[in-house]
Automatic annotation (TrEMBL):
It is a multi-pass membrane protein. Residues 656-719, 764-813 form the CBS domain. Its main location: membrane. It comes from Drosophila kikkawai. This is Chloride channel protein. Keywords: CBS domain, Chloride, Ion transport, Membrane, Repeat, Transmembrane, Transmembrane helix, Transport. The gene is ClC-b. It is found in: Membrane.
Length: 813
């Protein structure tokens, strides 16, 4: 297991889940033999600074394994480089060796080998057959109905998980903070200026923080490191088409749920909303497949949905249901998924996602109402950030003030993102050991408690009782009939504190209290996001924003006492929006979530959106949103919405990879086996009209995936024994092994001397998307992204392969 702390685990799923070696049955009759001579493995060429590399993984191929690549008789193909370093590209092994295409693709060269998902449906003969059969069976209609049912199930189950997490967090936090308040009452002499002694409550507080945090961090670190953080960058990458190992497994869900409970109860500066997206995504991926690979249980339902393309849509629905359940905000949840997570959407998907979100909130309402003993199912706790009783009003002269708050949010957010990235880079370099990661989480938890205690100890902020909406106010160092306003901020979950800042009446805090709280929480949240614990960044960001928003209103009111429009709750809300916009860089969904969770009128949408957009624009000037920053830092090959500016003016021939490892339409099983063994590519053009073994000069007639080839070898789908397997082989044969395709190591080495033929006609995708070498890169990028492709074939006018392009070729840094 990789020990390095990364946002997304780098090791390959197949390698971990390696199946035992399965012998493949060898038919009696050999068809053609393969070259016996082995040459040296090709050395890798790299430029002096290591930035340039041989395209793809061809350097691993043995000369005799892939004769077409090496026996290149014509003149070497022109070397097209982006950085013009063609001179270093030659890789001399023997005279007939081709010159490999060399480009500076640092992302590909220096980063982990993330694989892509197959969002393009492989419409091969088997698939077409199934479609024809299903047309007769009116399957499409049934499939659509089932799809709706699955989305409804996703909504319900996600909400049930959210309720469980919610209730456990609520109960445990209540127990914890009540115990601490009692311990304060028992141990601290009231109103005693000389005997202010917080030591015993402090020790209890430390203990009650580090125990859950250590437990959660240990689970995340040792059991499932992919659950660290909010999960949103991972889900976003997945929805973009990047395969993130173990992201949607049941084990991941379990660790995530426990992780988020322990972190929030432990008092870390984080919230549950990000993990809820992830939880929803796992639920969706699990339900929609009708089987559990972890428990080796196939329920034999929903088989038609067992591919990446279908699963992607469900995962999006699950994510939306998760956010909706976390905030009690169905439309905000759906928009959050669309704005932040989704890379592909269409009208039907939006509908289904909305239904999953609404069902999720409805279920949440029923369960929480029942839990709180309400018969009319009107649990107000669904307004997570507290409902504003009075309609929030604003005057038009306030709009520039909201804009200034937005700019402040943008600046603070950009600074937060940059500081957080620096802290995480430091972590990556200097805290690589697992136990150290757990200790680090504990230290940050202790730091939080210590800073809170210091604030409580040194800031004397007593307020009259009755002014405070918190359920159990703490008297600590205050007179009778007073409560300690600093303790009130700290002795509850971050979500409850946001609620307080929005709704506490004017005069609930000193300026110093809020100023210190803002600084402390800003730094704490920055140090927390990136720890090996499951936590979201939404709530702490909103909390910091609410604190400084309220603070600004108080300071301005102090300076201009006649400015009665300065309602602190209103400015706390705008501050939260601005800070969220500055860190997350979302606008539409955030404003809707804030509206739904606080019950404000649509007329207040305008101020919110002004603050959010100003924050986003200012923040975007400096850096990217925190989720995109994390994705970048971890070198995930995410395709942006638009092609990168560097690609303007370039053509396909300048980014393609060649020579291309191809497979003949009827090729020997032995050759295929060797190719799969020696190179890591996941797609191979299928060619016919091949002269000798020069496959890369053949005419393109399709593309075949690595996973399909492995299944063909494992199941011995050879021409020679066709009569045995043909009647039983269907598209289901391939779906059965989805999503954990066996690796090539599962196939026992074929005897060198015997070869059998594989006819790829019925397995390959006969209509891969092809482009011309002279097509512009921005255009082919649009095609690649819009269709969710994994491989794009570049062909010349004679339909012969000129090169291949994958998502890595579009990542230019
Ligand atoms: P993905 O990683 O997106 O799932 P892949 O594994 O097929 O797809 P990579 O191995 O990541 O592709 O590709 C790495 C580099 O190799 C890219 O520059 C790509 O253009 C190139 N490449 C991909 N397939 C082939 C192939 N069959 N022959 C030669 N080069 C290839």
């Amino acid at each position: 297991m990789d020990d390095k702390r990364t946002l997304i685990r780098l090791d390959d799923e197949t390698s971990e889940d390696e199946d035992p070696v399965v012998p493949i049955s060898i038919p009696a009759k050999p068809i053609e033999t393969f070259g016996e001579n082995r040459s040296e493995e090709m050395p890798t060429t790299s430029s002096a600074n290591g930035a340039a590399h041989i395209s793809g993984n061809n350097q691993n191929l043995l000369a005799d394994d892939l004769p077409s690549l090496l026996e290149h008789n014509g003149p070497p193909p022109p070397v097209n480089t982006i950085n013009g370093s063609a001179g270093n590209a030659r890789n001399h092994i023997n005279d007939s060796e081709p010159i490999f295409h060399l480009r500076s693709r640092t992302a590909a060269a220096s980063t982990p080998n993330y694989e892509s998902l197959d969002y393009e449906v492989c419409e091969n003969t088997l698939f077409q057959e199934e479609q024809r059969r299903r047309l007769r069976e009116r399957f499409s209609l049934r499939k659509d109905v089932i799809r709706w049912i699955i989305f409804i199930q996703i909504g319900i189950i996600t909400a049930l998980i959210a309720c469980t997490i919610d209730i456990i967090i609520e109960e445990l936090s209540e127990l914890k903070y009540n115990f601490l308040k009692e311990s304060v009452a028992d141990n601290v002499p009231l109103s005693d200026a000389t005997g202010r002694d917080l030591v015993i409550p402090f020790l209890y507080w430390i203990l009650l923080s580090i125990l859950p945090v250590a437990f959660g961090a240990a689970m995340v670190t040792y059991i499932e490191p992919i659950t660290a953080g909010s999960g949103i960058p991972q889900v976003k990458s997945y929805l973009n088409g990047v395969k993130i190992p173990r992201i949607v497994r049941i084990k991941t869900l379990a660790v995530k749920a426990i992780g988020v409970i322990t972190s929030v109860v432990g008092g870390l500066a984080g919230g549950k909303e990000g993990p809820m997206i992830h939880a929803g995504a796992v639920v969706a991926a699990g339900i929609s497949q009708g089987k559990s690979t972890t428990f080796v249980k196939d329920f034999r339902v929903f088989k038609a949905f067992r591919d990446d393309h279908e699963k992607r849509d469900f995962v999006l629905g699950g994510g939306a249901a998760g956010v909706s359940a976390a905030f009690g905000a169905p439309i905000g949840g759906m928009l959050f998924s669309l704005e932040e997570a989704a890379s592909f959407w269409n009208q039907n998907l939006i509908w289904r996602t909305l239904v999953a979100s609404i069902i999720s909130v409805f279920t949440l309402n029923i369960v929480l109402s029942a839990y709180h003993g309400l018969n009319d199912f009107t649990f107000t706790g669904l307004f997570n950030l507290g409902k504003f009783d009075q309609p929030l009003k604003f005057d038009y002269f306030e709009l520039p003030i909201f804009m200034i708050l937005g700019v402040t949010g943008g600046l603070l957010g950009a600074a937060w993102n940059s500081l957080n990235t620096k802290i995480n880079n430091f972590r990556k370099r200097f805290i690589p050991w697992k136990f150290a990661k757990v200790i680090e989480a504990v230290v940050v938890a202790m730091l939080g408690v210590t800073l809170a205690c210091l604030m409580i100890y040194f800031i004397n902020d007593c307020r009259p009782l009755g002014n405070d909406p918190t359920i159990h106010p703490v008297q600590l160092f205050c007179e009778d009939n007073e409560y300690n306003a600093v303790a009130a901020l700290w002795f509850q979950t971050p979500e409850a504190t946001v609620r307080s800042l929005f709704h506490d009446p004017p005069g609930s805090h000193k300026i110093l209290t809020l100023a210190m709280f803002t600084v402390v929480y800003y730094v704490l949240s920055c140090a927390t996001f990136g720890l090996n614990v499951s936590l979201g960044v939404f709530i702490p960001t909103a909390l910091v924003g609410a604190a400084w928003g309220r603070l600004l209103a108080m300071v301005t009111f102090y300076l201009f006492p006649e400015a009665e429009f300065l309602h602190p709750g209103k400015y706390a809300l705008i501050g939260a929006a601005a800070n969220l916009g500055g860190v997350l860089r979302m606008t539409i969904s955030l404003s809707v979530i804030l509206m739904e969770t606080t019950g404000i009128e649509s007329s207040f949408f305008f101020p919110l959106i002004i603050a959010l957009i100003s924050a986003k624009w200012v923040g975007d000037y400096f850096n990217e949103g925190i989720y995109d920053t994390q994705i970048q830092v971890n070198h995930v090959p995410m395709l942006p919405w638009e092609p990168l500016p560097q690609y303007k003016g370039l053509t396909a021939k300048e980014i393609l990879s060649s020579p291309v490892v191809c497979i003949k339409l009827r090729d020997s099983a032995h050759y295929i086996y060797k190719v799969l063994k020696k190179c890591d590519h996941n797609g191979f053009p299928v060619v016919d009209n091949v002269i000798g073994d020069r496959r890369s000069e053949g005419r393109v007639c399709g593309i075949i995936l690595r996973s399909q080839l492995i299944v063909i070898l494992l199941k011995s789908l050879y021409v020679e024994n066709k009569r045995f397997w043909l009647p039983e082989t269907s598209i289901q044969t391939f779906r059965d092994v989805y999503p954990r395709y066996p690796s090539i190591k599962s196939v026992r080495k074929l005897d060198d001397k015997i070869n059998y033929t594989v006819d790829l006609a019925m397995f390959m995708n006969p209509s891969p998307v092809r482009v011309n070498p002279h097509d512009s890169v921005p255009r082919i990028f649009q095609i690649f992204r819009a269709l969710g492709l994994r491989h794009l074939l570049v062909i010349n006018n004679e339909n012969r392969i000129a090169g291949i392009i994958t998502r890595r070729d579009f990542i230019y840094k």
